Amino acid sequence: MTNRYDTGMSVRRSVLGDAHVDRAEANKTPLDEPFQTLITESAWGTVWASDGLSRRERSMLTLALLAACGNFEEIPMHIRACANTGASKEDVMEAFQHVAIYAGVPKANHAIKLAKQTWAELEK
């Protein structure tokens, strides 16, 4: 593995938690291994590993982009990750306010629904 892969795996574990990454690794197959390597090296080992933004800021930006693009499936995962990145509920709601204005109220509304469901699950 490359240094970028190792860095990416470390950042990924720090943000998403060992349990999540362990499940993803356990479900990895030879078919999707190149994809998993790509996201570990690029998303986690390059983008998330950069010192240009804090992890709190990256969480807010990631959630806003997921919502704005309609990629709702990953929102709960990134809401859970906020516990590790320092992004508060208020931070997330501020990001979704931007989504409402710049990408559309329905997208923000759905993202908020998913966030509230995830926060409720975490509080149980």
From TrEMBL:
Residues 35-116 form the Carboxymuconolactone decarboxylase-like domain. This is 4-carboxymuconolactone decarboxylase. It comes from Tropicibacter naphthalenivorans. The lineage of its organism: Bacteria, Pseudomonadati, Pseudomonadota, Alphaproteobacteria, Rhodobacterales. InterPro entries: 4CMD/NDH-1_regulator (IPR052512), AhpD-like (IPR029032), CMD-like (IPR003779), Decarb_PcaC (IPR012788). Pfam families: CMD. GO terms for molecular function: peroxiredoxin activity. PANTHER family: 4-CARBOXYMUCONOLACTONE DECARBOXYLASE FAMILY PROTEIN, CARBOXYMUCONOLACTONE DECARBOXYLASE-LIKE DOMAIN-CONTAINING PROTEIN.
